[in-house]
Amino acid sequence: MKELSTEQKAKAYDESLERAKKLQETCDSTAVVGWCEYIFPELKESEEEKIRKAIICGMNALKNNQKKETFADIPLDDCIAWLKKKDKWRTEDKFEPKFHKGDWIIFNENRNSTYQVERIGNYRYYLRHYLGGTLSVPFDSELIRLWTIQDAKDGDVLACNEEILLFKSYSIQGRISLYCWYNGQTNNFHSKEVVDTLLTTRYKICPATKEQRDLLFAKMKEAGYEWDGEKKELKKIESKMLDADKVIEWIDDQACQGWIEDIEVDKFVDKFKKDFGLLYERDKNSKTT
After folding, report:
1. Is residue 120 exposed (0-12), middle (13-18) or buried (19+ Cβ within 10 Å)?
2. pLDDT at 174
3. Model confidence, pTM
4. Cβ contacts of 276 within 8 Å, gap of 6 or more
5. 66-70, 174-178, 241-245: which range is least confident on average?
6. 31 φ, ψ to 5°?
7. Mean pLDDT, to the nearest integer, of 14-38?
8. Rounded average pLDDT over 186-199
9. pLDDT higher for 35 or 192?
10. What is the three-state SS of the chain?
């Protein structure tokens, strides 16, 4: 199956949501309505809306059944009109975006998934996950909120201006600790752990994009380090020691296979590095440019 573009996925999601909404409004089956709300959480009526409707229903009952004209000295008609206006305000609010393009948000508190607002349109946010993948949610969704530094977890990669940070911890005093970081201005990777740096010195901190994450780990490897995500350790890559006897044996073997005769030196060296696990990432990249 052909991979859909972000726009195609968003359009398909919107169409599915609209069909589910119509089904929810016209179907008498509570099971079907429940499944619609499970698949599309934004269709689920909020507790605030349920309470508002219940109060309107109760006031209409007072007016029609008990023939009351006022409630706490306020005309019932005025109370009902105010509650209906509140629904109108809420409807208008849903069309005003609370977030903007580039904002980082948390979608679904239980999953604590981090997304960035990629674009806004059709009264919806189109979100991109920090590791890839997209999602579309309406303006009035109660499943999204702004990302804060308190959402960062041990081992997360964050970005701050032109720096990419490997996050360790955050304290209530507004300080952060880092395992290491990369400075894009100086093109330097810093392997020294930083403890209790004032957050005010690293303003505009946010989750790193997939491209920024890849860049950090590439620079980390260039500097001779690797990250152990399970142990939460920055490790120095140990230099490989070659066994001279095995090298001689390898050269003899290549000669027997005709590799050494009439071959370019560069290609022979590349094959040596590859067979002995010495072809570093920078070597691979240089061969593709």
Report:
1. middle
2. 80
3. 0.55
4. 240, 242, 247, 250
5. 241-245
6. -65, -45
7. 76
8. 84
9. 192
10. CCCCCHHHHHHHHHHHHHHHHHHHHHCCCHHHHHHHHHHCHHHCCCHHHHHHHHHHHHHHHHHHCCCCCEECCEEHHHHHHHHHHHHHHHHHHCCCCCCCCCCEEEECCCCCEEEEEEEEECCEEEEEECCCCEEEEECCCCCEEECCHHHCCCCCEEEECCEEEEEEEECCCCEEEEEEEEECCCCEEECCCEEEEEHHHCCCEEECCHHHHHHHHHHHHHCCEEEECCCCEEEECCCCCCCHHHHHHHHHHHHHCCCCCCCCHHHHHHHHHHHCCCCCHHHHHHHHC
- Listed residue (108, 116, 109) closest to 158, CA to CA: 116
| Parallel, antiparallel or unpaired: strands 225-228 and 157-160 | unpaired
